[in-house]
Amino acid sequence: MTSAFQFSPLNSQIYPPKTNSGFTILEITVVLVIIVITTFSGFFAYLEFHDRSTLKQISQIIASYTGDIRNDSILAKDGKTYGVKYYPDSIQLLKFITDTNTQTLRTIRFPINVHLTEHNLGGIEDTIQFAKLTGRPAASGTLKIESRRYFAVITVSTTGQVSVTEPQRL
After folding, report:
1. What is the pTM of this model?
2. Domain boundaries, the chain
C-alpha cells in the first residue's frame, strides 16, 4: 500500500511528496511580452488622444480670441477697430490706431507641435480687421492649423462669424 506521504527516518516527521511548482521561463516570457504589447498600444493611443485634444483646444482658443476681438470692434471700444494677425506659431490681437499704425494687445503662442500651415483670407496678407459696429471682417476665409497627425480648419465668414471643424487625420 502506497501512501501520499513519505516517512523520513531522520526526524520522524511525515512530509508530502515533492512536486514541481512555479513558472517556467517560457511562461514568464509570454506574460512579459503580453504586458509590453499592451503597454505600448496604450501609450500610442494616449499620444493620438493628446495630439488630437491639443489641436482641438488650440483651434478653439484661436476661434475664441478672434470672436472676442470682433466683439471689441462691434462695441467700438476706444473708437478704434480691432483685428487679428496670424503667424505660423502664434496669433497677435491688434488695435488699429490708424490704417497703418497698430498696437499689439496680446500675443498667443501655440504649443511646439501645432502650426498654422495655410491661410486663405483673401485680404491683406494674414491679418483680419473687423469693422466698427458691424463686426464685418475686411477679409474672410479659412485658416488650416496642424499638429503631427491631425488638422482643423477655422473659418471666418463674411459676416465675421468664426467656426472650427473637428480635428481630422492628415
Report:
1. 0.77
2. 26-169
Query: What are the residues whose beta carbons fall under 8 Å from the beta carbon of 18, sequence distance 6 or more?
Result: none
Q: 106 near 92, Cβ under 8 Å?
A: yes
Point out the least confidently predicted range of 38-42, 88-92, 125-129, 164-168: 125-129
Cβ(131)–Cβ(111) under 8 Å? no
Backbone angles phi, psi at 75, to 5 degrees: -75, -10
* Rounded Cα gap, residues 128 and 137, in angstroms: 6
Buried b (16+ CB within 10 A) or exposed e, 94-110: bbbeeeeebeeeeeeeb
Residue range 45-69, pLDDT digits in tens: 999 999 999 999 999 999 999 999 9
CATH superfamily, with its number, for domain 26-169: minor pseudopilin epsh domain (3.55.40.10)
